[in-house]
Amino acid sequence: MQTSVHWLENVAFEANSESGHRVVMDGSAAYGGKNLGPRPMELILMGLGGCASFDIVTILQKSRQDVIDVVCQLKAERADAVPAVFTKIHLHFVVTGRDVKEKQVAKAVELSAEKYCSASKMLSAGGVEISHDFEIIEAEAEA
């Protein structure tokens, strides 16, 4: 896997992925940023949410759960000192579907956290305390 990051101006950068996608990142106004894109640390958090959500959706689909939507809400705490690394991250999954089994969602969350989510494993190996929970919302039956 490869990427490149190109300086645009002030504290704004454009990252180009090997798969052909571009993301603009920018620092906060305190450092001369113009809010042209997410902060680099926000992208790490977004990546974790995407990685874990990918796992949850694919695991639930394989277990034949009728899932309509999955939202991962993340909250993170950072160290007060430099480097301001993440110290705690909580992932809350909101799974919407028809007759989705709580046991299956719990298993999907556990498998993602303990086995499949590379981002979660990497961050926790670096000392980040990562926690998870979920809720299930019953969707209306199809007409």
From TrEMBL:
<dbReference type="Pfam" id="PF02566">
    <property type="entry name" value="OsmC"/>
</dbReference>
<dbReference type="InterPro" id="IPR036102">
    <property type="entry name" value="OsmC/Ohrsf"/>
</dbReference>
<dbReference type="InterPro" id="IPR003718">
    <property type="entry name" value="OsmC/Ohr_fam"/>
</dbReference>
<protein>
    <submittedName>
        <fullName>Redox protein</fullName>
    </submittedName>
</protein>
<dbReference type="InterPro" id="IPR015946">
    <property type="entry name" value="KH_dom-like_a/b"/>
</dbReference>
